[in-house]
Amino acid sequence: MSAIAVVKLILQILLVVLSLLLTLLILMHKGKGGGLSDMFGGGLTQNAGSSGVAEKNLNRWTVGLALVWVAIIIALGLFTKFNLA
């Protein structure tokens, strides 16, 4: 097994782990309203302007992991395009 094949395998495993983690982080976000929850009274308890430190950190982690996730997908696409492994 070549070094490039090992790197591709590591990227694929990392992609699966990051996909699961990114899904969990997205599900942890608070709803912003405007959906079906507002029709049934869910929007009445939401404070529009309040965003705590924890939510800001959650946003940062989500965006950071999403950028890494996209970079891995691009790298794997380049491996496939140029038949490196």
From TrEMBL:
Keyword Transport: yes
Single GO MF annotation: protein-transporting ATPase activity
Subcellular location: Cell membrane; Membrane
Membrane topology, as annotated: Multi-pass membrane protein
GO cellular component terms attached to this protein's record: plasma membrane
Keywords: Cell membrane, Membrane, Protein transport, Translocation, Transmembrane, Transmembrane helix, Transport
Pfam families: SecG
Extent of the signal sequence: none
BP terms from Gene Ontology: protein secretion
Transmembrane intervals: 9-29, 61-79
Keyword Nucleotidyltransferase included in the entry's annotation: no
Entry function: Involved in protein export. Participates in an early event of protein translocation.
Annotated family: Belongs to the SecG family.
The protein's name in its UniProt record: Protein-export membrane protein SecG
Lineage start: Bacteria, Bacillati, Actinomycetota, Actinomycetes, Bifidobacteriales
